[in-house]
Amino acid sequence: MVIRTLEWVGGVDGLLELIDQRKLPGEFAKLQCRDVGQVYDAIKTLAVRGAPAVGVAGAYGFVIGLQRLPADAALEQGLASLHDSADHLGSSRPTAVNLFWALDRVKRCAEEFVVRNPNADVGGLREVVLDEAHAICREDEDMCRRIGQNGERFIKGGGGVLTHCNAGALATAGQGTALSVMFEAHKKSKRFRVYADETRPLLQGARLTAWELAQAGIDVTVICDNMAGVLMRQGKVDMVITGADRIAANGDTANKIGTYSLSVLAEHHGIPFYVAAPSSTFDLNIESGEQIPIEQRSADEVRFCGDKQTAPDGVDIYNPAFDVTPAGNITAIITERGVIERPGTEEVRAHLK
Ligand code: MRU
Q1: Which is catalytic among the residues 245, 252, 283, 323?
Q2: Which is deepest, 3, 60, 226, 285, by most CB within 10 Å?
């Protein structure tokens, strides 16, 4: 089954259709977004999630914003609408840079169109913005496949692979990043077992990664987050591979909370730790991971597990959604362009130039 996490349905008057990931694995439901507020809510509440997928959703959000204007409206109104949409969508989740990368790219493209075609109207602008959103979506699909092809050699047949959160098709417009590496290894008939951390508090590993891998016929075992160390000690884990939400110029990598602890455990046990991400996940404007904004989420995500309350009312809760793994703990970053071994500022710069 091909998983299409998000899809634009129709032409310029169309809508954004998403798999509602909040309901998986119990229910496979689609959500249709027809205004920018719905796209914002879908991102904020993790109906659509994962750094690249959020970027693509943001890009399509612009088209939805422009639909409120008549086709013959002036370009100034169109540009104002784009800026409003960018401000609103950009305030949904701060950590994954792909959202801001996609919003900036579409805005730049629209501004160039306006300079080149000062007499055009919003109808023309909509076409250009939709084309650019489609291009971002298609490129993401292609990048995912190439990440998988560049990384599959790191999976040794007969081994164990540990992953955290969900960096699969559900997190991108293609076949994922970390999971793409697994899908490509599986295509080559390699046999391996994936350990999927359940990834509290929102269980993306248990709900989404296990679901995707099981669909693909890949051997997957769900573990609680606190079991990773013992599995490593027992020699069951040959490599760790995760996705990324933002990679600083020096290779420091923000990803789902718990990734940093895994990198420390991997280092301690002499296990390679890989990050798989497209070049749109790099933020060369920041030197190190210390400058990456970390999203703080609602206390109730920790106070409750699903509908069940698991911590008392009134106690303090700490719920950062992401952490930063220092570049020094990363064996290699796998991108659509190739592999950055032992990433550092020079290595990242040389890879992306
Ligand atoms: O909060 P989420 O579910 O959006 O977090 C997602 C992750 O941390 C993924 O690992 C990351 O976005 C990479 S997705 C290819």
Answers
A1: 245
A2: 60
